[in-house]
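Appendix B, Record 12. Input sequence as logged:
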Amino acid sequence: MLPGRLGLMPPHPQEKRTKEKKYSFMSDTPKLPKKMGKTRGQRVIEAIPAHLKDPANYEKIERAILDAGATRHSHAEIIDWHKCVSCQQKQLDRLNMMKKLGFQSAAHYLVWKKVHQEIKTRDPLTKWK
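Logged structural output:
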């Protein structure tokens, strides 16, 4: 009970308590719309050419991209790899191979790879070769 108040008497207007607001991280976040739009992942998958959608081609395409970026030597430090002209040329060859196969970007390739890995885990009995 507050000092100066007797029993259950209503508080005096000047004695009004103020509620302290507790900080919440939710008060800083913007409100989400009630209706969400289509996700970007669906549009990326729709943009894939027909030969990339075929699960039978997955291993062939994966091998072609890996072979385009493979080198015959290695580096102990990432800085040495970055300075190596032949390694950087192989990375450009890998990027050009991805563009030639029909991928728009590295993110597009990663989404494609993730989708095909999910297909293989959900349906492991199907022969993909």
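The two ends are 80 Å apart (CA to CA).
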